[in-house]
TrEMBL record:
A GO molecular function held by the record: tubulin binding
Family: Belongs to the TPPP family.
Native species: Erpetoichthys calabaricus (Rope fish)
Gene expressing this chain: LOC114642196
Entry keyword set: Cytoplasm
Database matches in SUPFAM superfamilies: EF-hand
Protein name: Tubulin polymerization-promoting protein family member 2
Length: 179
């Protein structure tokens, strides 16, 4: 009998994990219809033959309270009882129920289809400074590190010389002091 109670603890744990899945405000005490369908899909209660997502929706509506949009753990167990007879046709009710519990116990919501971060290839290509040309090339030093503000803004040269003049800074040498 101890094994059965452990299964129930795992079943309740799975119920709570699926109940809070995708909902930041959920407490884990009640489950929405969407999450109930996800639980049935992820745990393979829905097999596409005996049990479809439509069956799951109908059973969810049947066990929930009239005006409620969620089911409690007790209503969840009632729904599983209804699904068990559909999923495992020909098996005794109790045995079918245990099979459904085994499918669900200890499971967590699968994150299949969740958006993954972009691959580094595109980022690497965009940040490869060797491919930068023209004025953008000035933003980086020889190692490819950004030069910050120096690379983005034009600073005014107030030395008195025309920009890019090769003889800049030679005025004092050319003018001889009077003696």
């Amino acid at each position: 009998m101890a094994e059965g109670s452990m299964d129930m603890a795992e079943l309740e744990s799975s119920f709570k994990k699926f109940a809070i899945h995708g909902d930041t405000k959920a407490t884990g005490q009640e489950m929405t219809g969407k999450n109930f369908v996800k639980l049935c899909k992820d745990c393979r209660v829905i097999d596409g033959k005996g049990v479809t997502s439509t069956d799951v929706d109908i059973i969810f509506t049947k066990v929930k309270s009239k005006s409620a949009r969620v089911i409690t753990y007790e209503q969840f167990k009632q729904a599983l009882k209804e699904l068990a007879s559909k999923r495992f046709k020909g098996k005794p009710e109790e045995e079918a129920l245990q099979e459904v519990y085994k499918l669900i116990a200890g499971k967590e919501p699968a994150n299949i289809g969740v958006t993954k971060p972009a691959k580094a290839g595109a980022v690497d290509r965009l940040t490869d400074t060797a491919k930068y040309t023209g004025s953008h090339k000035e933003r980086f030093n020889e190692e490819g590190k950004g030069r910050g503000k120096v690379g983005r803004e034009d600073f005014v040269d107030s030395s008195g010389y025309v920009g890019a003049y090769k003889g800049a800074g030679t005025y004092d040498e050319k003018v001889k002091p009077d003696q």
